[in-house]
Specification:
This protein is an alpha+beta fold and 177 residues long. A 5-stranded mixed sheet has the order 4-3-5-6-7. The protein has a two-stranded antiparallel ribbon with strand order 1-2. 25% of the residues lie in helices and 23% in strands. The longest helix has 14 residues, at 47-60. The protein folds into 2 domains: 7-36, no CATH class; 40-166, Cytidine Deaminase, domain 2.
Length: 177
């Protein structure tokens, strides 16, 4: 642990603007360390990923799920550091329902443009049930996320974090000319 972090007096330099203070408690600062060596983004002990899961859970509270009652939220951490959330929105025709992950992605593209890159994705629900991203969401996210980026979601055994490449190992790729 960096000495500055242990004392609670961490002041990011201009060169380390990617390190963002998440919160201070008892003189300690929990900060993201996405760019530091030894950082394990595929761990639930990772403070930025834990915060992203909390954002996803908060988004689930806004879900429109009158048919299934299954309220899901997703949070995307963009490479720029921005967090974008989405919630599932059901429809009586079922096929027109949009998942939380795609809702977040559409919001991110509409807000930040199609050149955005996703650094991490988290999914949560208010039903305490497994809910990994569905195949359609995985493929949509694949257009904007690095295969090594962490993806966190609830499973029957509890929260799980895998690399996006593990979640969708054979994604369709756009053709390069």
């Amino acid at each position: 642990m960096n000495e500055g972090l242990a004392r609670g007096d961490f002041q990011p330099s201009r060169a380390s603007r990617r390190i963002r203070v998440l919160y201070r408690t008892r003189g300690f600062v929990l900060a993201s360390s996405l760019m530091e060596p030894g950082h394990d983004p595929l761990s639930l002990a990772d403070a930025p990923l834990t915060a992203l899961l909390a954002e996803a859970r908060a988004a689930a509270a806004h879900a429109y799920a009158p048919y299934s009652g299954f309220r899901v939220g997703a949070a995307l951490r963009l490479a720029s550091g921005e967090i974008v959330t989405g919630a599932n929105v059901e429809n009586a025709s079922y096929g027109l329902t949009i998942c939380a992950e795609r809702a977040a992605l559409v919001r991110a593209v509409a807000t930040y443009g199609p050149a955005l890159r996703i650094a991490a994705v988290a999914v949560a629900n208010l039903n305490n049930a497994p809910s990994p991203p569905c195949g359609a969401c995985r493929q949509m996210l694949a257009e904007f996320i690095d295969p090594g980026a962490p993806a966190a979601f609830p499973t029957a055994e509890g929260p799980k974090v895998v690399s996006f490449g593990e979640l969708l190992p054979l994604a369709f790729q756009k053709a390069h000319s």
